[in-house]
Design brief:
The chain is built from six helices and 17 strands. It is of the alpha/beta class and 289 residues long. The termini are far apart.
């Protein structure tokens, strides 16, 4: 592939130039961009096609490669380092507790605070200390599309702003609650960073102690949501929509709680991602009558 070598920071100024081959993507490494050139135009050098990556699956948070599942072998880590050249490789074995604290190990390089861009939003976090589920991107986008400007929304498990930021950007007034002090510090930082501090109020501590008034929408983005569903329903009214996350389908359990509280509503199920060998992450949209 014929390319011109330019500083990576200049890519954004090349939107209308004639010589770029837009059937191919620029390759960026460090501070240098290799931009494909159409036939007949001057070029700097030629890049040879690399073999496709066929190693262990991973994803990038900033400049850190994240590996889930079983512990990666030294060969798998070396393969990722050689292919993607990240600053570090982090193995995330899982997470535990209501604070969703990850169990992690740095397998290569160094892991530090990163800025992750997703859907026009910047999330600052330390991936060795804070959970980030890449598989939830579609659900975040879905919720963002459902929100109407001016809605009053409770995000009961806000974390670093996973759902708070998309719905605030959609124009909602968000009450974001988080029990993990470290995640809460990133939540505050990310709210300011994304310019929605005028739309979000925050509370540190148990969400059950901070719910106030009636909400138009309640986001319950934690697999223990059922344990706090009755608390959430106490702050819901006709027309309120609750998004109840669960590992496995929880429609029957939700229906039982609604019946016990004398509340009527409809339940729609959405599959999000696989979280185990035979377990899927679901979201139940509960619309109260």
């Amino acid at each position: 592939m014929k390319v011109r070598v330019v500083p990576a920071g200049e890519l954004r100024f090349l939107g209308d130039v004639e010589w770029i081959d837009r059937t191919r993507r620029p390759f960026v490494e460090g501070g240098t961009a290799y931009v494909p050139v159409k036939d007949g135009y001057p070029f700097t050098t030629t890049l040879h096609r690399r073999n496709r990556y066929a190693g262990r699956g991973y994803y990038m948070l900033g400049d850190v490669a994240i590996v889930h599942g079983r512990r990666p072998s030294p060969e798998e880590v070396s393969s990722i380092m050689a292919w993607k050249r990240p600053k570090g490789v982090l193995w995330v074995e899982g997470s535990h507790g209501i604070t969703r604290t990850p169990r992690t190990e740095v397998m290569a390089g160094a892991v530090h605070e990163v800025a992750h861009r997703e859907g026009g939003i910047t999330y600052m976090l330390d991936p060795a200390r804070i959970m980030f589920a890449m598989g939830n991107r579609g659900e975040k986008e879905r919720i963002g599309r459902l929100v109407r400007r001016g809605e009053r929304i409770a995000d009961m498990y806000a974390g670093i702003g996973y759902f708070t930021l998309p719905v605030a950007r959609a124009g909602a007034q968000v009450h974001a609650m988080e029990i993990n002090p470290l995640a809460f510090s990133y939540l505050e930082k990310n709210i300011r960073l994304n310019g929605v501090d005028h739309l979000v109020s925050v509370a540190l501590g148990d969400c059950r102690e901070h719910l106030a008034g009636i909400y138009d929408r309640i986001i319950m983005g934690h697999f223990s949501s059922l344990d706090r569903l009755s608390d959430a329903l106490s702050h819901a009214g006709p027309g309120t929509i609750l998004h109840v996350h669960s590992a496995g389908i929880a429609k029957h359990a939700i229906g039982t709680i609604l019946d016990e509280m004398g509340i009527h509503g409809s339940i729609t199920i959405h599959k999000v991602k696989k979280v185990g060998a035979h377990t899927w992450h679901y979201v139940q949209d509960v619309t109260l009558e």
